[in-house]
Here is the input.
Amino acid sequence: MNRDPIFLRVDATARTGYERLARGMILAAALQRRRRPVYFLSQLEPNGLALTIKRGGNNWLAMNHAAGSPADLRETLQHIRQHNPAAIYVDDADASQDYLAELVGAGVTVLSIDHLATNRCPSQLIVNPLLGPSKESYEFAAGAQLLMGKRYALVRPEIRRHRPTRAQEPAPLAAMVEGKPSGQFRALVALGEDDPHRQTSELARLLLAAPRIGKEDIIVRRDLFPPDEAHDAHYEFVRTNLPRLIWCHADHLDCWPNYGSGGLDLALLVRYSSGDIVLL
Here is the structure.
């Protein structure tokens, strides 16, 4: 079996966010099961994220330039010539058509992870890890293979491992929709550090008004809700809607992996909720 390494070109910084690195870790775990060495070509902020990468048995090559830039292309091609990878995954919104075409011209199989479908993609393989957009939204080269839809959506292992916990919960009561009983959903509202205007409770109010929402979980940062009149209004909202609402106050939401521009600890999220509907 071919043991040539696989490259993952993905950055994880305050500018780019951390979701792309999180799904890169899912792909790396799958490649590890096939005994493929994996190299993350990444800019990391903070550099401590490299410990998470290496803990999974992967390698990290620090990049000096942002993904998609001309300087980054030269650096990436240098690593390709040095390690001779079997393929390179590129997961960055700034990876242009010319950038990807240069990688294809280097003789390596290029796989684009793209959930935006904003540019024509010359890669040999295109993966959409989300449920949309559909194939019709993409422009791609002849012979390219597209992997998208429910079959190829990425689900983090932390979420899958938490499903048995949810199976032990009592079944939600049926809701009447248009005079007929219907099943209910559980929702999670977790805006992390991206809630400077305190919209968490407003979103929760909108969801509670939906007849098919049976229970909500809310995770907020304590220091984003200092004790004042607005803070008391949030708690009054919680008290009047229990037991449909679960409000979790967290002092620190800055562990990896993070959501948004700042940090929402995924382990905390999984511990407190397993929502059908997730607002992040």
Observations:
- The two ends are 41 Å apart (CA to CA).
- The helical segments are 19-33, 49-55, 70-83, 97-105, 157-167, 200-208, 229-241, 266-272.
